[in-house]
Amino acid sequence: MAVRPVVALPDHRLKVPSQPVGRIDDTARALAADLVDTMRSRPACVGLAAPQIGVGLRAFVVDVSGHRKAHTCHGEVVLFDPEIVDSHSPVLAREGCLSVPDLTGDVARAGVVVVRGLTLDGDVRTIETDAFEARAILHEVDHLDGLLFLDRVESHDRVFRRKVYR
Amino acid sequence: MAHVVVIAVGADRPGIVASVTGVLVEHGCNLEDTSMTILRGHFTMMLVVETPPDGDREALTKGLTAAAAAVDVSLSVMPIEEGVTESPPGDPWTVSVYGADRPGIVYGVASLLARLGININDLTTRVAGTSGEPVYAMVLEVTIPPGVHPRELGMGLEALAGELGVEHSLHPSDADIL
């Protein structure tokens, strides 16, 4: 359990698709703990995927508790080998990423998402969510596929310099 | 590190960016922030360029001008001040103003923003529609400083849009770090 350094561009590891975790053992749980600790160590960070701490495995954590743009909220969510089962109703909003310093961009993402994955106990969990939690989950799952928000910006001129973390 | 701004404009055609940036590479320059787009058929480039410490500014300007002329582009190189502060503090908002084209739309909006101490970060305007009934559309990204309420801008825009007979909207464009 530790706060790990966050991998940022131009590190190519961010662009490499991650491998399935498969069996949820103590190593997988330790990875999840590191993801949670690292996410909690950064102000206003609401999610983190394993490649962002340099681990090429399909695992992420999100927690949008108390965020003003959140509607449905499942608290701290850790999922391994997540799959997007359904997604629809796209919404455009501006995103930044710990792994992409200084820039933000407008990205359309589904406003309603159903995601299925494995929990810390290795059980299958299906989460249906919307609004900001849906966006956060889609952003993290993108990391597992080697995709950054820069790969999804809505328009070439919609990339901005980030002001401040909030 | 010294920086220069390169500004170039010419009738649009393939190869303009390659011609200009080729000279920059030859002279060991590094492209930083740039904005390049087509405005009414003219390709326009604005480039902030880092020049090498031992660079020959005169040779660079000469090379760039010659390369630009070869693709019918006029170009100028200007030194810029170092250590300029990036941008004032505040929250990013997006302003849209659009409607029947008439003189004074940009001036009206910009004057309102200046009066409120609101900085413009990005401004794009386009004329669309037919020549008989042109439509003017303007989208701005602004920074509303601490101490100015977005409602003040909203009320100012409301009044101005009424005077100019145009539509407007205002929405926050702050980003969430995911």
- Arrangement of strands in the largest sheet of chain B: 2-3-1-4
Instruction: Tell me about the largest β-sheet of chain B.
Output: 4 strands, antiparallel
Say how many strands of chain A there are. 6
Our measurement of the CA-to-CA distance between the termini of chain B, rounded to an integer number of angstroms, reads 34 Å
Report mean pLDDT of chain B, rounded to a whole number: 93
Global mean pLDDT of chain A: 92
Write down the overall geometry of chain B.
globular
**SSE ordering of chain B:** EHEEHEEHEEHEE
Going by helix content, strand content and strand pairing, the class of chain A is alpha+beta
List segments of chain A where confidence is low: pLDDT < 50 over at least 5 consecutive residues. none
Name the beta content range of chain A: 25-35%
Number of helices of chain A: 2
Percent helix of chain A, as a range, is 10-25%
Radius of gyration of chain A: 15 Å
What is the number of strand segments of chain B? 9
Description:
The complex is a heterodimer of chains A (about 170) and B (about 180). In chain A, strand 4 and strand 5 form a beta hairpin. In chain A, strands 1, 2, 3, 4, 5 and 6 form a six-stranded antiparallel β-sheet that branches. Chain A is an alpha+beta fold and about 170 residues long. Helices cover about 20% and strands about 35% of the residues of chain A. Chain B is built from four helices and nine strands; from the N terminus they run βαββαββαββαββ. Chain B is globular. In chain B, about 30% of the residues lie in helices and about 45% in strands. The mean pLDDT of chain B is about 95. In chain B, strand 2 and strand 3 form a beta hairpin. The two termini of chain B are about 35 Å apart. Chains A and B meet through strand 3 and helix 2 of A and strand 6 and strand 9 of B. Strand 3 of chain A pairs parallel with strand 9 of chain B, so a sheet runs across the interface.
